[in-house]
Design goal:
4 strands; alpha+beta; 4-stranded antiparallel β-sheet
Length: 104
């Protein structure tokens, strides 16, 4: 036999957690949208080296850039890490739109 009261509580809990997740996704998307690779170059956080970027100090890299790093390598001649950065795209917008269609 199904305990409907308990089931209602569980469903409400799932809905609340989903709402929290959507809020968090929107915050990440906003942070990601503000990412300016040109400004990171100007600030010396990343340095263009052909198809790669040199990152002298990984602790200065914003978290919003990390999903774009698709290859990393250490070059003994360079101080820091060399990375390839994929083109900026909307990482979370598809997921957010799907949740919005469901009313979140």
């Amino acid at each position: 036999m199904i305990d409907r009261d308990n089931l209602d509580i569980q469903v409400k809990d799932v809905v609340e957690k989903t709402k929290d997740l959507v809020v968090e996704l929107r915050e990440h998307q906003e942070e990601y949208d503000r990412l300016d690779i040109s400004q990171l170059e100007t600030d010396g956080i990343i340095i263009k080296k052909g198809a790669w970027y040199l990152i002298p100090d990984m602790s200065k890299v914003p978290n919003s850039l990390k999903p774009l790093m698709n290859e990393l390598k250490q070059d003994p001649k360079e101080k820091g890490v060399l990375v390839k950065i994929s083109k900026k795209k909307s990482l979370f917008s598809k997921t957010i739109k799907q949740f919005e269609k469901l009313g979140f």
